[in-house]
Amino acid sequence: MTILLVRLRLIGDVVFTTPAIRALAQQFSGARIIYVVEDGAFPVVAHSPYLAEAVSVPHVRGWRRLRDDAKLARRLRALGVDLAIDFHGGPRSAWLTWASRAPKRVGYDVQGRTWMYTDVVHRPRELRPRHSVENQWDLLAVVHPALARPADPARDRVEMAVDPAWRRAIDGRLASWGVPADARVIAIHVSAGNPFRRWPEPAFAELAGRLVAADSRRWIVLAGGPSDREATSRVLASARAASGAAAPRIVDGEGMPLGELRALMDRAALFIGGDSGPLHVASTSDVPIVGLYGPTLPVRSAPWRPRTLPTASVDAGELPCRPCDQRVCAPGDFRCLTTVTAEAVRTAAERLLEAAR
Fold first, then answer.
1. How many domains are there within the chain?
2. Which residue, 68, 76, 80, is CA-closest to 39?
3. Residues 304 and 229 in one domain
4. Are residues 233 and 131 in the same domain?
5. pLDDT tens for each residue of 177-207
6. pLDDT tens digits, residue range 253-295?
7. How far apart are the C-alpha atoms of 109 and 92, rounded to whole Å?
8. d(CA 49, CA 46)
9. Of the residues 133, 153, 162, 230, which has the fewest C-beta atoms closer than 10 A?
10. Which residues constitute the domain of residue 60?
């Protein structure tokens, strides 16, 4: 049996499908499972022990996409897919699912695309206080009766297999920065692909400076996406300026590949970041996590892993505009982020660091 999975676009969304991958592999023992993802999220599933193959496609537009998708469709049809599941529901993923010609094609009831599936699962349009892993898991109910059960974060946690090369690379980075083997490394991710999820730079700088100055064994690794190079540099400079003699223990991890970031989590004492891909990559490890939530809700996208693992969610509390669709800030001042103080995040971080001693 050959099973095709499709989930394009964002890193965190691919992480949220990993419990379903494992469940399918366990239910259909011996099945060949192939997963199509976009380049940015490819490391999440690149080394999954449950996949026969992970197929990486570029995020392109225009005639190049048409050309690439036509080529990929021919490849998928040649595989003889028996079951195809579209975890995304976008026009591209729906078309690829249909183009596989699988006799059973599962997807959400998105207007204008249901004809491309043989089995359709309802997905409300409104933002619900329900975790994204559970939303993805809904598709499994029509695949096999044994999978028509609730997803459990202890039994069905998210995961990301670590390539040994990633471990060697991060060990080399830490050594080059002068980080001792027994250091308490705190990874802070200061950016987000969505501007509606970016905590203010001064708050990140204050947080990093205060955390590193409080304990001589602490080292801060500031990470950020390639599109936020300037923002990460500003946070780095401000944090160092505010931390005095501890400044050399704040290092620049901007541009770190996703696989190395995941490997870093196995060395880190704490991860702090907003609701973006790196937070969810961190959740595939056992590292304590402080998540920062603005327009999104922790109940929807907090780390999905055993509740025994230390996790704290910090947000602005109830606001009439929260959650939102992250297209326009109705109040205009991004209050869901700007009212989350560095002190509140530092308090949560210190609590988790103390518990992990």
1. 2
2. 68
3. yes
4. no
5. 999 999 999 999 997 667 788 899 999 999 9
6. 988 999 999 999 999 999 999 999 999 999 999 999 999 999 9
7. 15
8. 9
9. 230
10. 2-147
